[in-house]
Amino acid sequence: MARKIPKIAVYKFASCDGCQLSIVDLEDELLEIGQRFEIAYFMEVTRAVKKGPYDVGLVEGSISTPHDVELIKSIRKDCKKLVAIGACATAGGIQALRNWASVEEFSKYVYAKPEYIQTLEKSSPISEYVQVDLELRGCPVNKYQLLEVLSALLAGRKPNTPTYSVCMECKRKGNVCVTVAKGIPCLGPVVQAGCGALCPTYSRGCYGCFGPMESPNVKSLASKFIELGMDKKDIVLMFREFTGWSKEFREVDRLIEE
Amino acid sequence: MSSQQKTYFALDAEMFGNIIDVLKDLGYTVYGPTERDGAIVYDVLDSAEQIARGLYDEQSPGRYKLVKKNDKRYFGYVVGPQSPKYVLYPPQHLLFKVRKDGKTFIPQSDGKKIAIVGLRPCDLKAIEILDNVLLKGPYKESVYEALRKDAVFIAVNCVEPGNNCFCTSMNTGPFAQSGYDICITEFLTDRSHVFILDVMTNRGAEVVNRLGCRNATAEELDAVSRLMEEAKNKVRKRLNTENLKDDLYKNIEHPNWNEVGNRCLACGNCTLVCPTCFCSSVFDKSSLSMDVAERWGLWDSCFSIDYSYIHGGSIRQSIMSRYRQWLMHKLATWVDQFGTFGCVGCGRCITWCPVGIDITEEANRVRG
Amino acid sequence: MKAKVTLENTQTLEVEVMRKCSVEEVIKETPDTYTLMLKPLDKKEYNFVPGQFNMLYAFGVGEVPISLSGDPDEKRLIAHTVRIVGAVTNALVNTRKPGFIGLRGPFGNGWPLEKAKGKDVIIVAGGIGLAPLRPAIYYVLKHRKEYGKFFFLYGARTPNDLLYKKELKEWKSRFDMDTFITVDAGDEKWTGNVGVVTTLFKRIRLDPDNTYAFVCGPEIMMKFTVLELRNQGLTDDKIYISMERNMKCGMGLCGHCQFGPYFVCKDGPVFSMDQINRFFGRREV
Question: What ipTM does the predicted assembly reach?
Answer without folding.
Answer: 0.94
